[in-house]
Amino acid sequence: MKTLDKAPIKAGTKVLVRGDLDVPLENGKILETKRLDNMEKTLNHIIQAGGIPVIMGHIGRPKGEHVAKLSTKHLLPYFDKHLGKNNYELLENTRFDPREKQNDPTYAEELSKNGDLYVNECFSTSHREHTSTVAITKYLPSYAGYRLKKEIQVLQGVLKDPQKPMALVIGGAKIEDKKPVINNFLDIADYILLGGKVGLEWGDTLIENVHTPIDYAKDTLDIGPKTIAKYAKILAQAKTVVWAGPMGKYEEDDYIQGTKGLANSLKKVKERGGLVIVGGGDTVAAINKVGLLNNINFVSSGGGAMLEFLSKGTLPAIEALK
Ligand code: 3PG
Fold first, then answer.
1. Each residue's pLDDT tens digit, 204-263
2. Measuring CA to CA, which residue among 202, 173, 188 is closest to residue 241?
3. How many A from CA of 220 to the centre of ligand 1?
């Protein structure tokens, strides 16, 4: 896989960047810019080399139709401010075209006409075999952006050579999505701590390093105080922690204690020079809600993409760059 630093960008080279544009919007205002901020190094590199980034990507799930509130036009003020009005181009939401999700060669060819080179700077959608992430690589010389490269490096490090002891924390819902990660970490992690609905859904299967809650808050909507104490003690001693999925229904203040207790214990890991990785919109929102994002060293931009990378060690759009 070639990275952006190897791309032959000269004055006027158009670089088609598959960006991470899927940010939350409300009445056309961007509520959280982190994903766009993550693209800064790549976009600046292109501009400084004399090239023109032609940014494309999706927002939301418009189902192949034009949905005005999901237009990339809402991102123009952000890019004007950060890149300069005449220094870039921005294409419309790729998912307004039904062919985006079909990994379609004709759409890929059409998109490729907008650039001389292609850069994938969208880790969070790299688990999708879509036109703008996979098929496009057949039509242009293709490179990985700096943020994509960083995500791969950090997550690969955890899979191949984590500092021990290592703990994997899995919460949220949908055990079927999380099982492949849990299975892949049975031999990697010293502790696998389950909470949220996943904790309830795990059932009676006994595996030495897999821990399920020993008590719950009211209506099982959060882990209970004994579980918080047990998990926090384990985490405080860990050197590597990977966390996906909140411990309870964090949207309600009554059920955020589990997530808060665990996030608090991570301070010690970071202070000791350990690595704490968190991914997924809900997990990040929950930790942010209790003001403890400072305890995390690496916030992955991917939710589903991070889980799939952690279960398989690669993603379709990463393979397409090879
Ligand atoms: C995300 O928000 O995780 C990415 O933008 C992928 O979105 P998707 O789940 O709609 O493909």
1. 899 999 999 999 999 999 999 999 999 999 999 999 999 999 999 999 999 999 999 999
2. 188
3. 28
Distance 238 CA to ligand 1 centre (A): 30
The residue behind tokens 């062919």 is: 99
The dihedral sign for the CA sequence 133, 188, 35, 304:
positive
Which tokens is 257 given? 């204690």
Atom of ligand 1 nearest to the CA of 128: 11
Atom of ligand 1 lying closest to residue 61 CA: 10
pTM (global) more than 0.85: yes
Read off the pLDDT of residues 167-202 as tens digits, 9 standing for 90 and up: 999 999 989 989 999 999 999 999 999 999 999 999
Find the 125 Cα to ligand 1 centroid distance in Å: 6
The dihedral through the CA atoms of 92, 93, 96, 102 has a sign that is: positive
Residue 156, CB-side half-sphere exposure with 13 Å CA sphere: 9
